[in-house]
DNA sequence: TTTCAACGATAACAAATGTTATCAGTTTCA
DNA sequence: TGAAACTGATAACATTTGTTATCGTTGAAA
């Protein structure tokens, strides 16, 4: 098997059973793409045409609020998917932009590939369901955290679940992810 | 067809094609349940064993934060589903409680019914996928609103998308839904 | 190598939001 | 029907968070 497809095969196999034949056919539709640091692979206002699976690197999903300021919605790590799923599936303009925080290697899945997978793969619909459920759970947790936790608590959770993030992402983007100002995050960190 | 099943049939048919035979079999597993105002049909800490489809009435999904205060996560309206999907599917204790805000009639779907539907119905997995996707989109929008909107803006959105809510829900629960104190909401409304 | 932009800390001040307490009108229910 | 709980407004005050500006350091690019 193409070594570049090892990670995604592992992830998909964790959701459904997929035979070698099916995988060979399915994975042949994957495209490898190298993204340079700071490059934008989805721009707000355009339809999201792809789902990205991150082999190596780090993506940032953000949008621009009413005051023209960027808000970081999500940091997408290795071995996870990144996309604007709503824009992608409904083929409507996206509210989000996606930018590489580092030189990043992604596998690109087109809408045809995803929709085709629902029909072609024995467990295609199930894969779609389980992925949607998992990301639904993730969002559920995120909402609950926004309801119940203080910015400092969310900061501490982030550092404990993803300690290396500070070597990979500037602090003011973490502030925007936590939905607080960079000044305030600096205050929290330096405990004044 | 059982008149009580008309609403849910309409909703499910909007997601997938389902034959009359399949529907007859599937809907025979539905149970009708009447809930009295203030009754709790899911308690935090217990495993959520059901998905509720609301025929008539209004449910409130809430949890208790670290300070022991209730936070209203969601108001579930007629013709929508209410559950703790994560607790339900993973069979783990729930973080949420579900309470009736009015005398409410729900249709009860068990885990066996849902899982059985994935296999039994021609488009069962697809139904599960589309529902998960839709609720995923809903959560996505909710997160974005929490990032970008002021409490007043969220309040105005709520009133325009659901004008009658104030006749059905006390104001302090709306405040907890907006994640602000009841005092603050009162101030916003009375524009001081 | 030099220069400029990016980054993070800090201070001073402003705005948003929470907390506590009180009070009056309603609803509930024993 | 009457007491108690519930509800929402309001005031006073405290806390959190944002805004703007400055400054020194660092990193990137010409």
Description:
2 copies of one chain form a homodimer. Chain A is an alpha+beta fold. The first copy, chain A, has a domain at 3-118: Sandwich (Jelly Rolls), CATH 2.60.120.10. The first copy, chain A, is 47% helix and 21% strand. In chain A, strands 1-8-3-6 form a 4-stranded antiparallel sheet. Chain A has a 4-stranded antiparallel sheet with strand order 2-7-4-5. Chain A is elongated and about 55 Å long. At the A-B interface, helix 3 and helix 5 of A face helix 3 and helix 5 of B. The structure holds a DNA duplex (30 and 30 nucleotides).
How do the helices and strands line up, and which of them pair or pack?
Two copies of one chain form a homodimer.
Chain A: H1 6-15, H2 20-27, E1 31-35, E2 40-42, E3 50-56, E4 59-64, E5 70-76, E6 81-82, H3 85-90, E7 97-100, E8 104-110, H4 111-120, H5 124-148, H6 151-161, H7 165-168, H8 171-178, H9 182-189
Antiparallel strand pairs in A: 1-8, 2-7, 3-6, 3-8, 4-5, 4-7
Helix pairs in contact in A: 4-5, 8-9
Chain A binds a DNA duplex (30 and 30 nucleotides) through residues 150-151, 170-172, 180-187, 189-190, 192.
What's the quick description here?
The first copy, chain A, has helices at 6-15, 20-27, 85-90, 111-120, 124-148, 151-161, 165-168, 171-178, 182-189, and strands spanning 31-35, 40-42, 50-56, 59-64, 70-76, 81-82, 97-100, 104-110. With 192 residues, chain A is an alpha+beta fold. Chain A has a domain at 3-118: Sandwich (Jelly Rolls).
């Amino acid at each position: 098997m193409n070594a570049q497809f090892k990670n995604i095969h592992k992830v998909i196999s964790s959701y459904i059973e997929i035979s070698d034949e099916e995988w060979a056919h399915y994975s042949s539709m994957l495209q490898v793409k190298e993204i340079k640091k700071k490059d934008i692979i989805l721009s707000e206002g355009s339809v999201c045409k792809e789902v990205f699976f991150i082999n190596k690197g780090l993506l940032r999903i953000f949008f621009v609020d009413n005051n023209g300021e960027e808000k970081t919605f999500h940091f997408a790590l290795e071995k996870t998917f990144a996309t604007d799923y709503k824009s992608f599936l409904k083929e409507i303009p996206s509210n989000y932009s996606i930018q590489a925080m580092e030189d990043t290697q992604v596998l690109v899945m087109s809408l045809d590939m995803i929709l085709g997978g629902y029909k072609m793969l024995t467990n295609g619909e199930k894969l779609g369901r389980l992925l949607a459920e998992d990301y639904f759970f993730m969002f559920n947790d995120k909402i609950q955290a926004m309801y119940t936790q203080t910015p400092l608590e969310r900061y501490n959770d982030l550092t404990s679940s993803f300690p290396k993030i500070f070597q990979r992402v500037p602090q003011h983007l973490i502030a925007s992810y936590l939905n607080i100002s960079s000044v305030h995050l600096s205050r929290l960190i330096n405990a004044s």
